[in-house]
């Protein structure tokens, strides 16, 4: 790559595109805010719907320079432009994640994808093969790993502050699917998430249980070795699970419990994690994300606060505001994009990558978790190993 091109990459905002996220979508606007928060990138092109009118009007609402009603055409045309996009965000229903990602990876465009990565493990493995051969970056938005407090928790455990891990409890409770919302023609989010053709083999476990499992493995540094799962569809007529409870065995001997529900009355987005070792424990609540509780044996609890006394290099790097100025979901999302966009610049300049964000490997782990949870429950809640 010529020096002039290197200078151009260093001196300009990265150019981003988006597939999905059109009118009626939930997460697309969140991605846009997050990716543009630091001023390092701007979304300029999109295929925000397969419906031409919705694609056009959604792009106009976002003031995009270019719009498409076909992601295949978008990948080809953007790759051919001198001012084409450097990366693309995928925020479609699950069944489109892999075909869209493959189209852009094979066109030489870096990809950030919503989770879960696919609708099946086999499909995820086919994508992993394309990621490996394409030479392009692939990131996955397991957002909760972007909180500074979770980076601090991970480092404390890695440094041995908790001692030998014994137990991990993680729960993710919501109530938005308490009623058969998918029967409402206007409830597009509920419709596709409860539809096996678009969501895959699971609703609740795939949608939020995968987040809980990813956070557990990220913070503890231990992979889930096996699980025993009980999945339920409490709402009559629902095709996929809306609640799940699991026992977990982690590598190294620790045990765990994972509970997730989308029919837990009164809950909003109640994600919590507690980790216990033989020296200390940790506790964190996503709805109060700036506080991490450290519980040393025989001593008073310590309240570790974002922007005040988080010590790890990663936590400090991802902290954005002075102490007492709350940071939340958008900032955590933006932290993942900060790390990903840094590597996009590195890749465009043929420089070593830094990492720090979820990748295709996390996507594969997530699909193995989902498939084994479903298989365990269908077999009568028997223990299943995660390969």
What would you note in describing this structure?
Residues 15-139 form the Gfo/Idh/MocA-like oxidoreductase N-terminal domain. It holds the Pfam family GFO_IDH_MocA_C3. This protein has 387 residues and is of the alpha/beta class. The chain has two domains: 3-140, NAD(P)-binding Rossmann-like Domain (Rossmann fold); 145-321 and 365-385, Dihydrodipicolinate Reductase, domain 2 (2-Layer Sandwich), CATH 3.30.360.10. The protein contains 13 helices and 15 strands. It has helices spanning 3-11, 27-36, 52-61, 71-80, 97-106, 121-134, 148-158, 188-193, 196-199, 204-220, 313-317, 329-348, 360-378, and strands at residues 14-20, 41-47, 66-67, 87-91, 110-113, 138-140, 165-173, 224-232, 243-250, 255-261, 270-277, 280-285, 291-296, 302-305, 383-385. It has a nine-stranded mixed β-sheet. It has a six-stranded parallel β-sheet with strand order 3-2-1-4-5-6, sandwiched between helices. Helix 2 (27-36) links the parallel strand 1 (14-20) and strand 2. It is globular, with a radius of gyration of 21 Å. The model is unreliable at 1-6 (pLDDT under 50).
**Rg over alpha carbons:** 21 Å
Total domain modules: 2
Helix content: 25-40%
Strand order of the largest sheet: 14-13-12-11-7-10-9-8-15
CATH superfamily of the largest domain: Dihydrodipicolinate Reductase, domain 2
Biggest pleated-sheet summary:
9 strands, mixed
Shape: globular
CATH topology (fold) name of the largest domain: Dihydrodipicolinate Reductase, domain 2
CATH domain class of the largest domain: Alpha Beta
Could you say which structural class the secondary elements and strand pairing correspond to? alpha/beta
Q: If classified by CATH, what would the architecture of the largest domain be?
A: 2-Layer Sandwich
The count of strands amounts to 15
Q: Estimate the mean pLDDT confidence.
A: 96
Strand content: 15-25%
Unreliably modeled segments: 1-6
């Amino acid at each position: 790559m010529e020096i002039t091109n290197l200078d151009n990459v260093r001196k300009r905002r990265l150019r981003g595109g988006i597939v999905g996220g059109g009118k009626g979508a939930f997460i697309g606007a969140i991605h846009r805010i997050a990716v543009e928060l630091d001023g390092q990138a701007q979304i300029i092109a999109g295929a925000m719907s397969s419906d031409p009118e919705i694609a056009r009007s959604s792009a106009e609402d976002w003031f995009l320079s270019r719009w498409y009603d076909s992601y295949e055409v978008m990948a080809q045309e953007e790759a051919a432009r001198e001012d084409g996009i450097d990366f693309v965000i995928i925020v479609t229903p699950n069944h489109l994640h892999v075909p869209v990602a493959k189209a852009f990876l094979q066109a030489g465009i870096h990809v950030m994808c919503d989770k879960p990565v696919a609708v099946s493990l086999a499909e995820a493995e086919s994508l992993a093969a394309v990621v490996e051969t394409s030479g392009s970056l692939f990131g996955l938005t397991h957002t909760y790993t972007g909180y500074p407090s979770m980076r601090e928790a991970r480092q404390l455990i890695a440094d041995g502050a908790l001692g030998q891990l014994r137990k991990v409890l993680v729960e993710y409770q919501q109530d938005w699917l308490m009623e058969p919302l998918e029967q409402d023609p206007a409830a597009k989010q509920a419709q596709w998430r409860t539809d096996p053709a678009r969501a895959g083999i699971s609703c609740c476990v795939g949608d939020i249980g995968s987040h809980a499992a990813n956070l557990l493995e990220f913070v503890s540094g231990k992979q889930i070795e096996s699980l025993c799962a009980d999945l339920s569809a409490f709402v009559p007529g629902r095709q996929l699970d809306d609640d799940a409870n699991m026992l977990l065995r982690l590598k190294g001997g620790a045990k765990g419990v994972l509970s997730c529900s989308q029919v837990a009355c009164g809950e909003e987005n109640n994600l919590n994690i507690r980790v216990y070792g033989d020296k200390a424990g940790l506790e964190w609540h996503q709805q109060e994300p700036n506080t991490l509780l450290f519980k040393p044996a025989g001593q008073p609890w310590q309240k570790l606060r974002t922007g005040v006394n988080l010590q790890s290099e990663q936590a400090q790097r991802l902290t954005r505001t002075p102490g007492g100025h709350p940071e939340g979901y958008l900032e955590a999302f933006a932290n993942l994009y900060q790390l990903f966009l840094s590597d996009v610049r590195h890749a465009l300049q043929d420089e070593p990558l830094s990492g720090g964000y979820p990748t295709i490997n996390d996507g594969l782990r997530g699909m193995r978790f989902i498939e084994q949870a479903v298989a365990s429950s269908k077999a009568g809640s028997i223990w299943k190993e995660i390969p």
